[in-house]
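Sample pair:
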Amino acid sequence: MEFTVKTPYGYYSNCHLSVGEYANNGHISISIWSSEEGPIADITVNVFGIDVTPQNFSCVDTNNCPWATKLIEELNIGIPVGAGLGSGFCVYPVYKFDLKAIEKYMGG
């Protein structure tokens, strides 16, 4: 299933999610791709100190993608757990992602 994304830089249609994991801790990494435009954004960020398990937890990159939390809620793919991890001048919210819900938005 594809979706649309509106960012401060543009409006992107025919989008899907690309899912991987961070090499140092195995936590989920999520990127948005457009079939027409290519890569749009990495909506998660690997913050040092995330040691929660299971691996479907990750920090949302609200520094580069302040719109990402709204999109996550609209797609119903994750929920905030109430914690945040600091890195530099930003505190990134920790989310628990629903892997089954994410699957329907993954590209082929």
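The mean pLDDT is 89.
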